[in-house]
């Protein structure tokens, strides 16, 4: 029964998400919020490969995101290269950076690994701020805009095509995560998460497994950076390389939703992004910092109710309902 339930649920969810924008204004605020929610759901799923399955708490994923955004935008500005090709090159550069970062740090554990990745992300932000002749520096960089609609150049008159690009990317990334989670690599990563020394004793190449997970996660994150750049048309180093705006939020979405689970980042993004916008809309103009305080309080309450995230909380509620129904 379960084998058919989850695929059916996934088909229904994708169908609903495909039809939902048809009821909304293609240039409206709501559809932009949905795009951002799907963006961070995909980013949370990418982080989930490393942080969820292997328990490697990375705070440097903003580096990969920024590499993807800047690579595709700079190549588009200088050579009119399609963002699809620029995005692929950005993925390659992000993988190379992930290898450069992971080779010396992948054996680190806990807060040592987190600090090492945090430093790498901050280093990229400093480089982008300093290299103003290429990146625009603190002023930022804009994506050349064409009034002609072109899928090849990712240029559209409305955000509706961007919505479907984010949806397709999210579906593909979820399938990649599911394939890893249910495959041999996923079992190796979960063994590392439970007890890395024991995993090595039984023959798991922990170094290789974490290296593969890091590079796959980096490539996915970089391509989402390309989609983000073509969606926003303007960004600066603090936006795409920001620890709080990208790295921490990716981790928070996965952890709040349910770390190491397929549905976790989806639920986390579906809750956090609209809640953040709601808090900014209703509390942002009243008292400075009140919106972030209200937003933070809600997150703390949910984590206190069930530290394992929304997936576990929903399962707990479902079990109580069915248990009450069964007792009657």
Automatic annotation (TrEMBL):
Keywords: Cell membrane, Membrane, Transmembrane, Transmembrane helix
GO molecular function terms attached to this record: branched-chain amino acid transmembrane transporter activity
Source organism phylogeny: Bacteria, Pseudomonadati, Pseudomonadota, Alphaproteobacteria, Rhodobacterales
Record's protein name: Branched-chain amino acid transport system permease protein
Keyword NAD: no
InterPro entries named among the record's database cross-references: ABC_transp_permease, LivM-like
UniProt-listed CDD domains: TM_PBP1_LivM_like
UniProt membrane topology term: Multi-pass membrane protein
Positions of transmembrane segments: 6-24, 31-50, 62-79, 84-103, 163-180, 251-273, 293-314
Signal sequence annotation: none
GO CC, any one term: plasma membrane
Subcellular location: Cell membrane
Pfam families recorded: BPD_transp_2
